[in-house]
Amino acid sequence: MTDGGADGASARLTAYLESVDLGWELGGRPGEYVVTLPGEQRLRTVVSLLVREHTTSVSAFVIRNPDENHEAFYRHLLRRNLRLPGLAYAVDGHGDVFVRGALPNEAVDATRLDELLGALLTAADAAFNELLILGFRSSMRREWAWRVSRGESTANLEAFRHLLED
User: Is the whole model's pTM more than 0.70, yes or no?
Assistant: First the structure.
């Protein structure tokens, strides 16, 4: 039987991280590992894995508090929560959105970590553009107009050109 405590989970997590092609480092808190996942909609998602006595938690910042359309924005997140395996969107005191989850230390193994990090990346990355449109469309339009008026690059807004051009 594998060690179901924090030491066993830490050893299995370290072995997993050393076996995959992901950037990672020890975090600032005891038992914390900070992992960088590459993205498609976002450049990267930084994940905190925190091994405690009985559980290992996972958390990643998704997007800041929306500027507008709060009801539709949060409704969208709640609906997406129904499809997240072992994870959920959460909002902090500032309204910023995170995706969080936890698993028992005895469940920490390579297969489960692959599944968990894959689901977390999908939750943070795949929903990103939809969340930008729902919560920041007016800001994006102002940014687009400002860049166009000054001849600045619009490269990071190209995915939204169809929504932003007048």
Answer: yes
